[in-house]
Amino acid sequence: MKQLRKQADEFVFMTTTIGPRAILVFLVIVVGLLRMCIPDKTDPMDNSINKSSEIVAHVMVRDSTNNGFRVVYATAEPVTDERFAEICTRTSVRNGFESLEKEAPIHFGNNLLETDICDFALYVYRFPIDKDIRVHNIFVTGKEKMDFYVRDNPNLPRCARWMHHGTEQGNQYLNANDINYYIPNGGRIYRYWKCRYLLQTSDTDERFSHFTEEERLY
Asked: Tens digits of per-residue pLDDT, 116-129?
């Protein structure tokens, strides 16, 4: 009797051990067969594990005084090299950039010199270009507008009083999160390129230097 009970216990143990594994193997086989039967609708241009986010264009939006903003567009999602090339050659994308360059200055009364970067960012965020790209950065551009951010700062001894246009150190800018999430939800934020701390920000448009001559990059 004891021997029978022992054999029964061993059988139950083996069943509980093999059962879940067998079910798992069965499910893997079924899923594999289903994937083989269902046609892959992925465009061959997108069918690769080698994907990355890429910069599409730097769009210069300026008024009659040659001041304004440099809008950096990037792919909305990581893409293959082939898809990136296709996006860059879309007629709709090129036309969208041209429309932004033409219509934005008019919208702001042809005075981008005094236009706030957050107001401009909200306008650009709402400006239709293409679903496969989005704004990655916005930088202030134009000599007069950039010079706003290399003025005397009484709270910063030996502050910079000129801007190296190659590094753009001190220039005001916004990042992708600011443009696509924070500002559309009612926020206002101002950043200063390569100044003291990479994440240095303010909640007002501070038109003075944010780095010293010792901190200058060349």
From this structure: 999 999 999 999 99
User: What CA–CA distance (Å, rounded) separates 19 from 196?
Assistant: 62
The count of C-alpha atoms lying within 13 angstroms of the C-alpha of 26, restricted to the half-sphere facing its C-beta, is 6
| Nearest to 57, CA basis, from 41, 70, 67 | 70
List helix spans (H) across the chain: 2-37, 81-88, 91-107, 117-126, 143-146, 176-177
Q: Of 210, 113, 79, give the one whose Cα is nearest residue 152.
A: 210
pLDDT of residue 178: 98
Distance (Å, whole) CA 121 – CA 199: 19
47-77 per-position pLDDT tens digit: 888 899 999 999 999 999 999 999 999 999 9
Quick one: 76 exposed, middle or buried, by C-beta within 10 A (0-12, 13-18, 19+)? middle
